[in-house]
């Protein structure tokens, strides 16, 4: 029983610490502002209204009750509000706020007052850690409640999947916070912990982006090789038929046209040979680092199940195409983007989260080991 | 007498270089005020932190309140005031006490009751809703003592308890410590201010460069060095001429002796020599004298520098 009294006391202290931080209130205020802005987007029979009707954009596709309006509204939530605001801006502010949790706890004079209690160090460590995550949980909790109500009000979608943002954004944040804790425990410096975490985060983002782009381009190139090989086979077949029928000029033409695909295959294979070692290296690094991007993408994946039109189709314009029009040809960027999504969707959620949690457990294990053994 | 703390052969080496403690052994009896003395860097605070599990000993054997050192549950019966303690500045005095009380496993109702009593005890009742960050050093020290006493501990470990406290506050703290001792609690004090401990200290140990140089009860340590000062008027006998100090007409002689009976024959002889005895008073060795003697015993009286020993034993 007394252990629970101590755990609740540490959590309460974390809450008081957060509440005392001005930044906590600032972030909360900004979150409310963003969600009010989100709520201000509405749909009517002629298009989209913004800022509670102050601005109106006419559209024949995105109107009240249309599938596109639902995709657009939920898409804004998952692709922009979660991915940009919560995952970047709000997370940086959260890191600034929570980076001091362990270093200030470990300051001389403060740490003795807690470590000299009957509560075991391992309990103190984990409760402090969870206390740090409270910041994000509370912020995202309020935020998603607002988003849930907004979606219900504006597009009549009462989708509980919106609340998935709470565990997913908290998970995403925990991948970074564990690094912050490790550096904080080692150095006892807020600034060093913050800078190291930001560096890790940007590094992780860089690796993920490089891997996504490289993999998508490699896939595209492999498909090009495959297409060129098919074309080559067709030309070879035409040449063989022409040769068999004695049509030497046609056989010569076919043989002439074969040089194009042959050169293309050679060039692509050369490029693939150069890029594959890079991809192997980047993949190996990605294997050990947490899946920050893909964890957040799980929310989008979950929300998209209830969308009649995919967000990618909406953003590329494919959703606005008439059925009687000839099929549009996607540009290179779109192909790459679709391949990244396609590849990510193939990975099961348990693998994305499990792999990241193994990283987090390893980092936290190291931090705990140092925390346990250290003299204060 | 039962022991509150008994430790044997405590060693602590920091980063394989600095030997803070080099085989400290000592015993603190129940219901006593035990003073841990020593120069800066002698290892006193390290020893207290080891007892409170804040620092891991390199080697240790012993017990605290009958349980092995490091037994976490025992700490529920121990109050601790660290040196240079810092409370979360955003908390009020009441919130801070609730926090530390809860960490010691106290239930809310018990905490409420004890917080009222403790704030009253340290004279901070009027400040309970004020933030700790706005308190002076002395006020923070009072809150520190309150948190150490909050869970009604049997044993108190106080590291520089009067640090930053004004003279009135110091006197109050001294009286409080005596009161707590009289209630049957054991108190271990780590302090530099020897004059403050003089009147309340029952047992002491002097730690010098990570070793106990002198240990025992104040009576034991000072009995062999008790002196008697005999003041008299008139020209004294010749045989004590060289040992006297003259101050006008009044002459004093310092006589060694554990008890009063030992000096009576000498007083008689002074009287027989025609002198008038004006005063006889007992002079005990002060804590400062004891402290200096411990330094001499440890070979650290001259040219010594503060700090722990480095490397191997000399």
How would you sum up the major sheet of chain A? 3 strands, antiparallel
What's the number of domains of chain A?
1
Strand order of the largest sheet of chain B: 6-7-8-3-9-10
Question: What shape does the CA trace of chain A take?
Answer: flat
* Largest interface (C-beta under 8 Å): A-B, 30 and 34 residues
Number of strands of chain A: 3
Order of helices and strands of chain A: HHEEEHHHHHHHHHHH
What do the pLDDT scores of chain A average to? 88
Strand content of chain B: 25-35%
Mean pLDDT of chain B: 86
Secondary-structure content class of chain A: mainly alpha
Which term fits the overall shape of chain B?
Answer: globular
Which percent bin holds the helix content of chain A?
Answer: over 70%
Helix-and-strand structural type of chain B: alpha/beta
Number of helices of chain A: 13
Along the chain, the helix and strand elements of chain B come as EEEHEEEHHHEHEHEEHEEEHEHE
The CATH architecture of the largest domain in chain B can be given as 3-Layer(aba) Sandwich
Describe this structure in words.
The complex is a heterodimer of chains A (376) and B (314). Chain A has 376 residues and is mainly α. Chain A has helices spanning 2-20, 22-39, 67-98, 101-105, 111-115, 121-155, 165-187, 190-244, 248-288, 292-304, 311-316, 332-346, 349-373, and strands spanning 42-43, 47-50, 55-58. In chain A, strand 2 (47-50) and strand 3 (55-58) form a beta hairpin. Chain B is an alpha/beta fold and 314 residues long. Chain B folds into two domains: 3-221, 3-Layer(aba) Sandwich (Rossmann fold), CATH 3.40.50.300; 227-283, no CATH class. In chain B, 31% of the residues lie in helices and 29% in strands. Chain B has helices at 44-51, 93-103, 108-121, 137-149, 167-182, 194-198, 218-223, 260-272, 287-297; strands at residues 3-14, 18-29, 33-37, 59-64, 67-68, 78-81, 155-159, 186-190, 203-208, 211-217, 227-233, 244-247, 250-256, 276-283, 309-310. In chain B, strand 7, helix 5 and strand 8 form a beta-alpha-beta unit. In chain B, helix 3 (108-121) packs across helix 4 (137-149). The radius of gyration of chain B is 24 Å and the shape is globular. Chain A binds chain B through residues 2-3, 5-6, 8-10, 12-13, 16-17, 19-20, 107-120, 373, 375-376, and chain B through 14, 49, 52-56, 72-76, 78, 80, 82-88, 90-91, 95, 98-100, 102-107, 147.
């Amino acid at each position: 029983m007394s252990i629970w009294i101590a755990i609740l006391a540490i959590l309460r202290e974390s809450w008081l610490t957060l509440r005392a931080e001005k930044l906590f209130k600032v972030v909360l205020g900004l979150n409310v502002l963003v969600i009010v802005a989100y709520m201000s987007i509405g749909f009517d029979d002629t298009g989209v209204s913004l800022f509670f009707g102050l601005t109106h954009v006419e559209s024949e596709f995105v109107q009240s009750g249309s599938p596109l309006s639902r995709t657009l509204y939920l898409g804004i939530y998952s692709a922009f509000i979660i991915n940009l605001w919560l995952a970047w801006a709000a997370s940086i502010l959260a890191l600034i706020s929570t980076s001091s949790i362990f270093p200030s706890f470990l300051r001389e004079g403060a740490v003795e007052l807690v470590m000299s209690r009957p509560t075991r160090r391992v309990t103190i460590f984990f409760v402090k850690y969870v206390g740090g995550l409270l910041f994000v949980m509370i912020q995202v909790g309020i935020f998603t409640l607002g988003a849930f109500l907004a979606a219900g009000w504006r597009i009549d979608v009462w989708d509980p999947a919106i609340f998935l943002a709470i565990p997913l954004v908290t998970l995403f944040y925990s991948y970074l916070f564990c690094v912050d804790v490790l550096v904080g425990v080692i150095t006892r410096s807020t600034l060093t912990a913050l800078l190291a975490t930001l560096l890790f985060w940007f590094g992780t983002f860089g690796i993920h982006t490089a891997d996504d782009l490289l993999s998508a381009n490699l896939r595209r190139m492999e498909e090009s090789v495959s297409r060129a090989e098919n074309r080559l086979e067709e030309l070879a077949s035409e040449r063989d038929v022409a040769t068999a029928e004695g049509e030497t000029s046609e056989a010569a033409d076919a043989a002439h046209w074969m040089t194009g695909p042959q050169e293309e295959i050679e060039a692509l294979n050369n490029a693939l040979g150069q890029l594959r070692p890079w991809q192997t290296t980047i993949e190996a690094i990605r294997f050990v680092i947490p899946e920050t991007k893909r964890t957040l993408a799980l929310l989008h994946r979950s929300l998209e199940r209830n969308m009649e039109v995919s967000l990618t189709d909406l953003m590329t314009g494919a959703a606005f195409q008439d059925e009687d029009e000839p099929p549009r040809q996607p540009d290179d960027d779109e192909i790459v983007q679709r391949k990244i999504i396609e590849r990510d969707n193939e990975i099961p959620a348990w693998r994305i989260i499990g792999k990241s949690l193994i990283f987090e457990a390893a980092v936290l294990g190291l931090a705990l080991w140092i925390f346990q053994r250290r003299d204060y | 007498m039962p022991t509150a703390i008994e430790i044997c052969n405590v060693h602590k080496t920091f980063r394989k270089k600095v030997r803070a403690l080099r085989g400290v052994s000592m015993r603190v009896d129940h219901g006593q005020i035990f003073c841990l003395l020593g120069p800066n860097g002698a290892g006193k605070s390290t020893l207290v932190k080891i007892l409170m599990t804040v620092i891991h000993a390199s080697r240790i054997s012993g017990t605290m309140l009958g349980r092995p050192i490091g037994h976490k549950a025992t700490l529920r019966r121990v109050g601790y005031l660290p040196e240079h303690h810092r409370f979360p500045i955003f908390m009020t005095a009441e919130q801070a006490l609730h926090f530390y009380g809860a960490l010691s496993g106290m239930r809310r109702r018990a905490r409420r009751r004890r917080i009222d009593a403790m704030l009253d005890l340290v004279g901070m009742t009027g400040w309970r809703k004020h933030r700790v960050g706005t308190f002076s050093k002395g006020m923070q020290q009072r809150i520190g003592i309150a948190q150490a006493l909050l869970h009604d501990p049997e044993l108190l470990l106080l590291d520089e308890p009067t640090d930053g406290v004004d003279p009135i506050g110091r006197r109050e703290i001294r009286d409080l410590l005596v009161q707590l001792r009289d209630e049957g609690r054991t108190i271990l004090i780590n302090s530099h201010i020897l004059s403050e401990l003089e009147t309340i200290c029952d047992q002491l140990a002097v730690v010098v460069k990570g070793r106990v140089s002198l240990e025992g009860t104040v009576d034991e340590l000072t009995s062999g060095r008790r002196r008697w000062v005999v003041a008299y008027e008139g020209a004294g006998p010749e045989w004590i001429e060289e040992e006297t100090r003259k101050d006008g007409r009044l002459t004093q002689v310092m006589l060694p002796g554990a008890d009063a009976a030992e000096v009576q024959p000498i007083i008689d002889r002074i009287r027989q020599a025609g002198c008038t005895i004006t005063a006889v008073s007992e002079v005990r060795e002060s804590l400062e004298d004891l402290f200096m003697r411990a330094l001499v015993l440890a070979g650290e009286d001259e040219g010594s520098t503060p700090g722990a020993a480095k490397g191997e034993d000399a």
